[in-house]
Write a structure and sequence with these properties.
The complex is a heterodimer of chains A (about 325) and B (about 350). Chain A is built from ten helices and 14 strands. Chain A has about 325 residues and is of the alpha/beta class. Chain A has a six-stranded parallel β-sheet, with helices on both faces. In chain A, helix 2 crosses helix 9, helix 4 packs across helix 5 and helix 6 crosses helix 8. By secondary structure, chain B is an alpha/beta fold. Chain B folds into two domains: about 140 residues, 3-Layer(aba) Sandwich (Rossmann fold), CATH 3.40.50; about 170 residues, Alpha-Beta Complex (L-2-Hydroxyisocaproate Dehydrogenase, Chain A, domain 2). Helices cover about 40% and strands about 15% of the residues of chain B. Chain B contains eleven helices and 14 strands. In chain B, strand 13 and strand 14 form a beta hairpin. In chain B, helix 3 packs across helix 10 and helix 7 packs across helix 9. The longest helix of chain B is centred in the middle third of the chain and has 22 residues. The chains are: A alpha/beta (about 325), B alpha/beta (about 350). Chains A and B meet through strand 10, strand 11 and strand 12 of A and strand 10, strand 11 and strand 12 of B. Chain A: InterPro entries: L-lactate/malate_DH (IPR001557), L-lactate_DH (IPR011304), L-lactate_DH_AS (IPR018177), Lactate/malate_DH_C (IPR022383), Lactate/malate_DH_N (IPR001236), Lactate_DH/Glyco_Ohase_4_C (IPR015955), NAD(P)-bd_dom_sf (IPR036291). Chain A: This is L-lactate dehydrogenase.
Chain lengths: ~325, ~350
Amino acid sequence: TSTENKHDPHIWRLEFASHFSSLHSSIGVLKSMHVFVQDLTDELALVDVIEDKLKGEAMDLQHGSLFLKTHKIVADKDYSVTANSKVVVVTAGARQQEGESRLNLVQRNVNIFKFIIPNIMKYSPNCILLVVSNPVDILTYVAWKLSGLPRNRVIGSGTNLDSARFRYLMGEKLGIHPSSCHGWVIGEHGDSSVPVWSGVNVAGVSLQGLNPDMGTDKDKEDWKSVHKMVVDSAYEVIKLKGYTSWAIGMSVADLCESILKNLRKCHPVSTLVKGMHGVNEEVFLSVPCILGNSGLTDVVHMTLKPEEEKQLVKSAETLWGVQKELTL
Amino acid sequence: RYKLWCYFGIMASVMQKLITPLASGPAEPPRNKVTIVGVGQVGMACAVSILLRELADELALVDVVEDRLKGEMLDLQHGSLFLKTPKIVADKDYSVTANSRIVVVTAGVRQQEGESRLNLVQRNVNIFKHIIPQIVKYSPDCTLIVVSNPVDVLTYVTWKLSGLPKHRVIGSGTNLDSARFRYIMAEKLGIHSSSFNGYILGEHGDSSVPVWSGANVAGVSLQKLNPDIGTDKDSENWKEAHKMVVDSAYEVIKLKGYTNWAIGLSVADLTETLVKNLNRVHPVSTMVKGMYGIGEEVYLSLPCVLNSSGVGSVINMTLNNEEIAQLKKSADTLWGIQKDLKDL
């Protein structure tokens, strides 16, 4: 029966591909991902090169089957185990060594992706790729190039987590649940992300309308530090527990839910932004996008200030500076 | 104990043979008990939505029509295998509602042909005079959610009859209107309703106020993209979306005789925020005297931060003069009815 099910178009499969030279962070992310997506999919496949850890993770999950709604959890080094996946989440990648240049790190990850992506495509030619590995904007571009998929089927987790962290911190400041606090962080995931202050609101009340200095250095309430805390978040957690896993796992599950349930919800994720906001290069940056079962189908055009657009253009130039030196 | 039974020559029952109790003593009181008053279509939709969301550890139903009440209770109890609410009770007697955290009031009479609004309200006041004091008697610490229409007036009536502080009496108000608005607007834009943010405030019903300045997707204000939005000059006629919201209830009633699913789901959403102390913002009917120049004690919907104590705070909307005027006008109309109510 399982082989019959494999070809049933109604079965949604989710696969995680991890290929790690450094175990710790990857397994952490991996663990959280599959725990959070368990009710979204009826088959879950895990792939990695480190066979022991992979088998251990799969067994540990399978032992929880009584409490889960995912009837099949499989794992193998061989990519044939991933066949017919609807969504493929890629968390694989090498970590930056001490003193290593960004270009060198990216080239090492490109080499890893050159193995992973074609294998994924061989067995799931109609999948939607969700790239989480860092630097996510560059690696989403790489995955897009290597996969040959149309641009609506290659999505980077981008600033989905940055925005979630921003809304959490905003909620703490205001004493309101993050789901009622609205704020969007877009652009390049990481230090150069852009908080769009004009859109920050609660119940449609623009906070910048109440405090025009918001986001500037003159602001007495120092809202700018909220964005700084978002940027520093990952470093702080890594310093304390060695890696981040739970929040990123939950944010990816949230994206998967919109895709698998065809919700057409709006999320800040990394997509090809050539031609938008003054960007001329073929780069991926995060903007608000509509996600459904055909992937990323629409982009919401934000009304940005000139300084904000300048930051996006600058990020695009930096990313292209790295991308053009890559051998794909 | 089993040996004792055998000694006295009494046959041990299956239960005694099967199960050995370890702890005895009085049962612990429920922590998240929800009571629904009125088991009509709306009441039962609220009950089912709350059960499926696993929000309550005990559910109580109250009504005056005893057969229907018992039938509804049994039908729910028969689904226990699939639920996480281990105790479902029902009775005409309000003692069954004791220790409730949340009480949802859906009881009330419907408008007769040609009946004046004042007359309808007075008839409902007479019913609430029986209901509300009993609720408070058995659950003095509860938070009340009033759903019965006209909701803003009846929330005021409930507040007066209950003697509870104003933050613990909430009207479902424009929570449903806003949900309908977000659905209609999102459909127009081809996105999920949760990604469209927009509030309808004020008086639930024909005179509700869509706050166009706050309508946005991903923080992008629709009014900034189209300054005519919501006005008659608007070539895209976005105002139509609000009209559709106002007409929604009538349309559904005309087609199926009543509305229940959407209101049930919206009440469960409020209940979740209250029970889980989430501090989420919802547009619900609250006492607005002193806001926006309103001098009377009336209930109107504003975005409220809800938590386990009820209405924790109110979000101050930046409304334009026209919107404020509409709220004031609603307040005057409501007070016009309220001041003539007898026996509050």
